[in-house]
Amino acid sequence: MSQGANQQEARECVQSSQPWNDPDAVPFIRFEKVTKKFGDFYAVDDVSLDIYRHELFALLGGSGCGKTTLLRMLAGFEELTDGKIFIDGVDMAGVPPYERPTNMMFQSYALFPHMSVETNVAFGLHQDGYSKSEIKDRVADMLALVQMSKFAKRKPHQLSGGQRQRVALARSLVKQPKVLLLDEPLGALDKKLREQTQFELVNIQEKLGTTFVMVTHDQEEAMTMASRIAVMNEGVIKQKGTPFELYEYPNSRFTANFLGQVNLIEGTLVDDDEKYAIIRSDDIGGDIYIDHAVQGHEGTTLWVALRPERLRLCTEKPEDSAHNCFGGKVEEIGYLGGLSTYHVRLDSGLRIKVSEPNTHRHNEPRYTWEDRVWVTWETGSASVLNQ
Amino acid sequence: MSEIKPTLKQRFDRWMIRHGRVLVIGLPYLWLFLFFLVPFLIVLKISFATAEYAQPPYSALFQWVDEGVNVAINFGNYLFLLSDSLYITAYLNSIRIAAISTVITLLIGYPMAYGIARAKGSTRNLLLMLVILPFWTSFLIRVYAWIGILDREGLINAALMGMHIISEPLIMRQTEFAVYIGIVYTYLPFMILPLYSTLEKMDGSLLEAALDLGCKPWKAFLKITLPLSMPGVLAGSLLVFIPAVGEFVIPELLGGPNTLMIGRTLWNEFFSNRDWPIASSVAIAMLIFLVVPIMYFQHIQGKTEEAGK
Amino acid sequence: MSGKRSIFLTSALCFGFAFLYVPILLVIIYSFNEGKLVTVWAGFSTKWYVELFQDDGMIDAAWNSLRIGVMSATLALAIGTPAGLVMSRFGRFKTRTMFSGMIAAPLVMPDVITGLSLLLLFVTMEQLIGWPEGRGMTTIVIAHTTFCAAYVAVVIQSRLAGMDSSIEEAAMDLGAKPTKIFFLITLPMILPALMAGWLLSFTLSLDDLVISSFVAGPGSTTLPMKVFSSVRLGVSPEINALATLIIVAISILIIIASILVMRSERQRSRQIQDDPGIVG
Ligand SMILES: Nc1ncnc2c1ncn2[C@@H]1O[C@H](COP(=O)(O)OP(=O)(O)OP(=O)(O)O)[C@@H](O)[C@H]1O
Ligand SMILES: [Mg+2]
């Protein structure tokens, strides 16, 4: 790929940096009502999903929710029970894995134990019949990219976990696939190395412009790396969107809970006028005021989702706030360094979690056990969920 | 990739992709079907024939007569087996001898397997190799070794008489006792290996947890180790029991003339009496008894295979 | 480990190994006995070895056995390897239960039944299609191949079961077709199992008496058949000598094989330890 073409692509990339919002954009990968059954068990159930060129798309979900199965269907290792998959406009039905324009980085890395790092990386190129010299150059470039040139002659068992991960990445990237599939690429690394590698992966992805589809069960990893995320549960996609959309506008209790911390308060819609929607909750012992429109009519049961960091604590009841102010007692304090979290038992008996940044060095926490406090939040801070 | 003119290699590749799977399954399937399964059907067929002085020495089951196929099924062989107490005795003897030997093998093999599994790294490998080594050396020679030891003029008698402990040589060879020794001796590795592999896989912390919760070591063994090693016990016992029922060489070389076992009876019917139909019905009778343990063995094999994945 | 238990286990091991090895050692010792009687030590001599090598019948039988062993082991590998592959990598197919049954059953089937049934098959086949003509080496090789293939299948299967199947998937993902994957990836990785399977088949074939006796014909007497007919008559020093040779040959083979395996493993772990660049 020449320098000019690279820049050209980069420009296009910026122009259409949100192709999912552009009705004319053509999806690069398309899942159409894809279903996979193992016996009677639905591992993936009627999933439709569009992924665009140059995206780093993350499939996020708990263990056994069907992420790997979805990825393996894209790679061609599992046959679909129903539905269709298109890559770059081509129907993938009946196309075997070795003819698909995808390459996969396996959860276990799956390096060939009897081949050196170099031969491992060269394997895919050999299959396509490239000339010796070209293979040599491309392998060398790739190893340089993942900083493994020094270890070219080693066998996989002579490498550390992080180094194996780099070799697996190099091996799957060297064929310049249209799509790179990553199954928990960082699962085997420790926390520090994982964070460092996350950024390296994103850098490599930006440099090459390859479309990445990544599976992970780590929500922080998905948020840091992905352009968009699909949250899965029991074979179904619960919600998809940018990390921002998912965090700020979850569409269900499941996503709200899955991404970050949340307080969920059940209530009934009692009033929905121009200024406020009012949700009455017995749990919290009062009315919650929301300053944006709420779906549903009066009498609908709803859930109010409140992120702990959007709540404020104060020792005296603030005078200006007529709305969303509830008294309680501090029950537990968790000191996390940058943050402290407080569990407050409200007068209604509901326990609510509040987190506050520790912006100053205090000699002791600002609040202590059994302190009488008030929990307040702005009317725009809460999201309201229908399911 | 051009679709217009596939080269020979491309054609071959395509053919392999379409039929390769069938080919890989087909070869062993066909072989085992032809040389393992079909023979049993033939044995079954011939067990219903009558012996004749002919080549081969049995009557044809189906005969082409003018008006069609004449089927001559003869249950006589089975009735004969039932009527002659010789066969029933041999049958019951085999089961009894095989069962007792299996229990003895288990009693000797379990502590050995346990000891090996508890041993440290290199010692463990050495001990394991020592168990496997005799398994590779000739079975016949291992049985033969006991002839020299148990014989009337054998080493034990010579030693005991040399030390004046006995004045008359003990009769040890050509007894059931010698058969037990032979079976236990030759089949011991088959018992130890599956036992070892379950015991070795067992998580040591389970036992520690039991001790930690106040269980006495002996009780911990009974309540934790033994139940968890049950698959190994079963696999090992079946690996000893099933072949032991049909054992021929050991009763022939170490047993006496009246140590009747079913494998020996079959051999004699076949080689001495040249009565192939009776030999076949003896084989079928043996198989009927062994079918359940064999299927159970296969079931365990399948389970361990799945657990391995 | 508590003291009492370790004493019990140690003595069980000592007793067990004595039980396994003393008879073999006695055979070896008495093969060097000058006299003909087992019980009397008449001085050291190698005359029974000399006699053994002059016994033409014995030498012929040994040759037969070796040839049959090599042929059966090789054929068993050709049939058992795909069988093991099918069992561990092909997932479910319609008649899988029957297939796995045909692999597990020969492992425990009493020899007399296998021998008789194969003989009857050969006789029937000769009647129907004229092949195999009479009985001899061919029929013995077929018979041995059948039960050895089952052992090979089990060895290969357990090796493959311990191997991550995503390694083969990775090769496919990188563009290799199934046949190529087998030769480039699977085969090199199961090579030790293949060698073990071949050796196991070879010794099993060399060792078999009962099945061979059923399916052998004139002129295809194997070593165990020859030994059996002379052992029936009692102990003979010549057989002691033969037994010693077999035991020594096989022990050397096995010990060399396991030393090779151990050394390559040790080398591997040393490479990891010595290399400072590996971590980080
Ligand atoms: N070959 C198979 N046969 C039967 N069931 C299967 C098979 N493969 C997967 N499943 C089932 O399908 C479901 C989804 O599996 P999948 O591997 O996609 O989960 P996952 O989301 O990747 O989980 P994890 O985070 O634990 O890797 C699981 O319940 C699993 O038990
Ligand atoms: Mg997974």
From TrEMBL, chain B:
CDD domains recorded: TM_PBP2 (cd06261)
Membrane-spanning intervals of the chain: 21-44, 95-114, 126-147, 177-199, 220-245, 276-297
Topological relation to the membrane, as annotated: Multi-pass membrane protein
A GO-annotated cellular component: plasma membrane
Keyword Amino-acid biosynthesis: no
InterPro entries: MetI-like, MetI-like_sf
GO biological process terms on file: transmembrane transport
ABC transmembrane type-1 domain location: 91-297
Subcellular location: Cell membrane
UniProt entry keywords in alphabetical sequence: Cell membrane, Membrane, Transmembrane, Transmembrane helix, Transport
SUPFAM superfamilies given in the database record: MetI-like
Top-level taxon of the source organism: Bacteria
PANTHER family per record: INNER MEMBRANE ABC TRANSPORTER PERMEASE PROTEIN YDCU-RELATED-RELATED (PTHR42929), PUTRESCINE TRANSPORT SYSTEM PERMEASE PROTEIN POTH (PTHR42929:SF3)
Family: Belongs to the binding-protein-dependent transport system permease family. CysTW subfamily.
Protein name: Spermidine/putrescine ABC transporter permease
